[in-house]
Each structure stands twice: as structure tokens, then as C-alpha cells.
Model the fold of this input.
Amino acid sequence: MRIDIITIHPQLLESPFQHSILKRAIQKGVVEVNLVNLRDYSTYKQKQVDDYAFGGGAGMVLMIEPIANCINHLKKERSYDEILYTSPDGELLEQKACNYFSTLKNIIVLCGHYKGIDERVRQHLITKEISIGNYVLSGGELAAAVLCDGIIRLIPGVLNDETSALTDSFQDNLIAPPVYTRPQEYNGWGVPDVLMSGHSANIEKWRHEQSIERTQQRRPDLLK
Done:
């Protein structure tokens, strides 16, 4: 998979891809992440990519021209399955979307900034808008990092145990069950006996029951 991230602050996105699981995925060649500086596609001498909004109002708006220039340049090199825009009013990112994106070959992620982007970009160049929550960030870079992490970890060959992702929260609309590790006893707090029984069927039954109970208590909306 290849992910091209269009941003005016590529430095903000360097660190997330230089550590842990994402770094290993890139080193293995399972995924290629390319940070694209939007200013490189500006036709202005000062590499300007934003301007005042028509009609007035506070805040600057990313212009359509550099964005279109950038996307068109990338599309000349390869075809893209999706062109995503990180926006607070986009579709709320859920596990099923990450599952879908992880099956694609090429993706563009456009990071918004300032007051947003020219609406014509959203109307004519973007295929899907993604939000990571009902709040506003200073820019779309952090949202893009969250999105990419959620996608990349699902690609076969990224995790050492590929079945691990299948038991994550939300994969079956349930929250994951509680987990324990050594020591078995700590400060008088023990581990449920069933987990020490070695009986696989009983353990799986307990985990499933715990998932349902936790979901009912913490996220009953998922059970609808």
C-alpha cells in the first residue's frame, strides 16, 4: 500500500512514522508513506497556499489551485482508490472504515488547516471525508496520523501475530474483554480463575461474555 499525505507541515508527521509498528511496516516494505508539501505546488513566489475567505470573516482558507495541482500531479503517477480529507464534519472514523481502507492499494490523505479548504476541493476532488471525533484540531496532521495508524496495523504482515487485530475492540461491535499478565497475585488482587484453567473453550466463552458485559456498560450504542 502507498499513502500520500498532503500537508503544509510535513515535519509534524515525521515522528509518528519513525517509531514502533508504523516504522516496522515501512521498513518491511509493506506500506510506503509519502509526505507531500503542499507549498511545492503553489504558483506564488512566496509559496502562498491560503487566502482570505470570500464574503469576509475570520480565518484563512486553503486555496483550490495548489491542492488541485498537487492531486493532479500525484494522479499522473498512479491511480488512487480513495482521496481522503481529514475534516471535523466528515464521516466519523470507525473500525469498519479502517478495515476497508487497509484493503486498498493507493490512498491520498489531504490535511486541512486554518479555516478549512476551498469548498470546490471537497465537491470535485475528494472522494471521502473523515473525522476522528467531534472536536476541532489546529490542523489535519494529527488526524491523518491517527487514520494511518488505524489502517496500517491491519495490513497483513505488519503485526507479528495477524490474528491480534481480529480481536481488537469494535471488530465485532464489541469492546475487547479485560486482559491480565504476570504476576498472578499483586497487592491481594488476583486473576480470574478461568484464565488459569487452561480450558480454551471456557476461556473464550468467558471473554465473549465479558465483552458483551463491558459493551453494555460502557458503549451500549454499539449493541444497537
